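Researcher: Here's a chain I'd like modeled. Treat it as a single chain, no partners, no ligands.
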Amino acid sequence: MGHSIAEAARRSGLSIDTLRYYERIKLLDPPERDAAGRRDYSEEDLTWLAFLTRLRTTGMPIRRMREYASLRRRGTASAGRRKAILVEQRAVVAERIEELRACMDVLDYKIGNYERIERDAALVPSEATA
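Model: Modeled as a single isolated chain. Structure tokens:
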């Protein structure tokens, strides 16, 4: 059983416009059509959309995603290049994680500093109670 475009949008977390856009730029193969001519997305289509969403979340540019999608259509003959694209993107993600860890360290330091300030302020008797 297939899924309407509205259901595919809901399940993928993408908008209907994004689904049509992905189809137009050839990230997504045109889905089958039902008897009335409406798009009929398969589970395989939804799995592919979930993967595309993950790639976007990693910051992969649409241009690179299009290359990957084009290679995917070629089957196993393109496995080496597809793997290389993912390895390259993994390196980008690893670098971003390190940047975020450094940011987290700064935030933790600053939060700790403010906690010390608040703790020290609580130890000093206020002028109103003296």
